[in-house]
Design a protein that fits this description.
Number of helices: 17
Oligomer: single chain
Distance between the termini: 34 Å
Structural class: alpha/beta
């Protein structure tokens, strides 16, 4: 089951934000994240806040979820007041959002547009599992206003998918990508995972080649993390599966960067490659560059003006609070200037354009350059940009530079 929520400061019943958060509201980009906490089965590696039918219990259901989410959108408008906040991106994640009918996803999008207004050309993304959509569903999703779909492909090898408890077959991915193009979507992402126990270098190469052959304009590739409390962690602990090997995962990252770049998809964030600037995930770029966003749904996190808060986890508790006209927020924290500086470095240093050199200790950056972790040319022009080797060691580099 998902990990417990972090502690924090209490949140007023009406969700009111501190004045410091509202200062400058509307001068920063604004987005919505919508969490849909339902799955047919729980994948063995997953610790996301998501629930199967057997886990859900009374007090919440897929059938009523859209209207509950709409109530939080209306709450967001009350909390944020009359400030003009055109929504630049909406990202619907999960869970498996496409377990809901496309009309339900469309109703949440309509509520966001009615309360805040979608900016011209807004990017509207939903995640999907390859087996959770068909050609008709995708057509209705496009009619509802969605512009981008992100599929959880993970691997092209059946034995790797089996270890991850994924239920789709490798051949399903090219089929749904083709349907998605036919439905009128210009932007399609495929998510891949590397480092699964039992995966070989050849398996990983085959997965990359299969993803590229399907023709997406964006690929995300993430190293497997064995999260405490998951079935995968239990199997590793019992010795049934070997833990991921750091050296093997570094080699697989390098192979991903090599193959994806050779096929015209270039990295713009450590784990993300896009065919063009237009294909990059604008929603995630807002996260990485300090924008404001409101997270709708159980367990969803939000950030406005240096204040971060997170909702209660269980869908029943979430629905009950909104029915009572009180905030579903569990707790919050207000970041001080030093927290925000460190967070900015952590996030922006992951980007191909790097972060402003002035945020960093000059001596530490020069050591990183000497060690081949930071590019010398951009630093002379005022930006700290990771080398390929620096990307492999990004967490350690950030610690050294902050």
């Amino acid at each position: 089951m998902p990990a417990t929520l972090p502690d924090g400061d209490p949140v007023p019943a009406d969700g009111a934000l501190p004045l410091s958060a509202l200062d400058g509201l509307g001068t920063r980009p604004f987005a919505f994240y919508v969490h849909v906490p339902f799955c047919v089965t729980r994948c063995g590696y997953c610790d996301f806040n998501t629930y199967t039918a057997a886990e859900l219990g009374p007090g919440a259901s897929r059938g009523t979820y859209a209207e509950t989410a709409v109530e939080e959108v209306r709450l967001a408008r009350r909390v944020l007041g009359d400030a003009a906040l055109p929504v630049e991106t909406v990202f619907v994640g999960g869970g498996t959002p496409t377990l809901l009918p496309p009309g339900d996803l469309g109703r949440v999008l309509e509520a966001i547009d009615a309360e805040f207004g979608l900016a011209p050309g807004a990017e509207i993304t939903t995640e999907a599992n390859p087996e959770s959509v068909d050609e008709r569903y995708l057509g209705l999703l496009r009619e509802a206003g969605f512009t981008r779909v992100s599929y959880g492909m993970q691997s092209a090898r059946e034995h790797v998918l089996a270890v991850l408890d994924r239920t789709h077959t490798p051949g399903r991915v090219p089929q749904v990508v083709d349907w998605t193009r036919r439905a009128g979507f210009d932007h399609i992402n495929l998510d891949l995972i590397y480092g699964t126990p039992g995966e070989t270098d050849d398996d990983w190469r085959a997965s990359l080649e299969a993803a590229l052959a399907a023709g997406p304009d964006h690929v995300s590739a993430y190293a497997l993390i064995v999260e405490d409390g998951t079935r995968l962690a239990a199997r590793v602990r019992r010795g049934e599966l070997a833990p991921p090997d750091d050296d093997a995962m570094a080699d697989r990252y390098l192979l991903a960067d090599e193959l994806l770049s050779a096929h015209g998809l270039h990295w713009y964030e450590i784990s993300n490659w896009a065919a063009s600037p237009e294909a990059a995930c604008r929603h995630n770029l807002l996260y990485w560059t300090g924008a404001d966003w409101w997270g709708v749904g159980p367990g969803a996190h939000s950030h406005v003006g240096g204040t971060r808060w997170w909702n209660v986890k269980h869908p029943a508790a979430y629905a009950a609070r909104l029915a009572e006209k009180v905030t579903p927020a569990h707790a919050r924290e207000v970041l001080d200037e030093e927290d925000r500086r460190i967070e900015r470095i952590m996030l922006e240093l992951r980007l191909a354009e790097g972060c402003p050199a002035g945020l960093l200790d000059g001596a530490a950056v020069r050591r990183a350059i000497a060690d081949g972790l930071v590019e010398p040319g951009p630093y002379e022009r005022g930006r700290a940009v990771l080398t390929r080797r620096g990307r492999l060691l990004a967490d350690a580099v950030v610690r050294d530079l902050t």
